[in-house]
Q: What sequence folds into this?
């Protein structure tokens, strides 16, 4: 069984400050890891994903995340927050061995607010 | 490409009424999914279809049925709506391979009174 823990439900940063959103996962097999973003009244869209290879993954809008197996973590960062980054962020995990029957398990999400 | 489309966008039902949420994708994806999103709960999988002609239960299937009508369309039916089914429903699709990047529709906001 897989699970994702996103500590806290809300993070507030100033414009231009570092964004750090934490994600820890639990998986009995090597995982695929994802970050999705949801802007108000919209569906989710993929920010970035880790499948294989380089553990530092770059995504859209200047976000990146690092897969740390020893810490079972996949934290999302952005060096300088922009007002347009205000949204809800979801970390998700899937089982790389399940093939077409694999499913995503989502964390509860973190709301990011950006102060002017 | 419209991507993943969902109808309706909003719906209000009375307890006991039935309705079907429609989802279609034009990306030739094999796999399709239905989620519900509730505050503080993240997204929970209701049902999914790994390929045309197959459907499987997810984490919270009770009170729902699905139909994979063809490769493009995957509908979700509430036979007898309950207030606990008040939620935002998202449909998603993916190619169905290992990487499992899912593409989401805009959602249906359902209120059951």
A:
């Amino acid at each position: 069984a897989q699970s994702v823990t996103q500590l806290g439900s809300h993070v507030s940063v100033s414009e231009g400050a570092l964004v750090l959103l934490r994600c820890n996962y639990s998986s009995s097999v090597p995982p695929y890891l994802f970050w999705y973003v949801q802007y108000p009244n919209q569906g989710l869209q993929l920010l970035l994903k880790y499948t294989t290879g380089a553990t530092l993954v770059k995504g859209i809008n200047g976000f990146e995340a690092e897969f740390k197996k020893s810490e079972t973590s996949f934290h999302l960062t952005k060096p300088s927050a922009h007002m347009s980054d205000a949204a809800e962020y979801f970390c998700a995990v899937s089982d790389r061995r399940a093939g077409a029957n694999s499913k995503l398990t989502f964390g509860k999400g973190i709301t990011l607010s950006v102060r002017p | 490409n419209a991507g993943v489309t969902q109808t309706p966008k909003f719906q209000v039902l009375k307890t006991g009424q039935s309705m079907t949420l429609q989802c279609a994708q034009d990306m030739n994806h094999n796999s399709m999914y239905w989620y519900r999103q509730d505050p503080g709960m993240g997204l929970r999988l209701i049902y999914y279809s790994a390929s045309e002609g197959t459907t499987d239960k997810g984490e919270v299937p009770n009170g729902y049925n699905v139909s994979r009508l063809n490769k493009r369309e995957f509908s979700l039916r509430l036979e007898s709506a309950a207030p606990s089914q008040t939620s935002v429903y998202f449909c998603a699709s993916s190619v169905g391979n290992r990487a499992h990047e899912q593409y989401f529709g805009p959602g249906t906001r359902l209120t059951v009174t």
Notes: Chain A has no helices and twelve strands. The interface with chain B takes residues 9, 32, 34, 36, 41-46, 49, 51, 90, 94, 96, 99-104, 106-109 of chain A (CB under 8 Å). The longest strand of chain A covers residues 87-95. The mean pLDDT of chain A is 91.
